[in-house]
Write a structure and sequence with these properties.
By secondary structure, this protein is mostly beta strands. 0% of the residues lie in helices and 54% in strands.
Length: 118
């Protein structure tokens, strides 16, 4: 059973920074690559992709809406993926979800709220 636990959300002023963490457990094989992703869902809107990183290659991909402001990274030793967010805007307000794609199955965390407001 794969478990993903997000942390680090909160209230931040526009222009501020925040770092989200996602602790992962339950991956029983170190030989199978995992793609870790962040998604977000604002109130009344559909869930949208934010960024992804491959555990095997370290290759990252970010949504156009966050490029240059958000950075996804991974610490394989700690089985933790991070989302460093800078220059936050009110429109970044959402519940942020960590997701893992492993052996063809997708897993989700419970989400952490990020609110950008003055």
């Amino acid at each position: 059973q794969v478990f993903l636990v997000e942390s680090g959300g909160g209230l931040v002023q526009p222009g501020g920074s925040l770092r989200l963490s996602c602790a992962a457990s339950g991956f029983t094989s170190s030989t199978s690559a995992v793609t870790m992703s962040w998604y977000r869902q604002a109130l009344g809107k559909e869930r949208e992709f934010v960024g992804a990183i491959s555990s095997a290659s370290g290759t990252t991909n970010h949504a156009d809406s966050v490029k240059g402001r958000f950075i996804i990274s991974m610490d394989n030793a700690k089985n933790t993926v991070y989302l460093q967010m800078h220059s936050l805007r009110p429109e970044d307000t959402a519940v942020y979800y960590c997701s893992a794609l492993w052996r063809g199955d997708r897993y989700w965390g419970q989400g952490t709220q990020v609110t950008v407001s003055s």
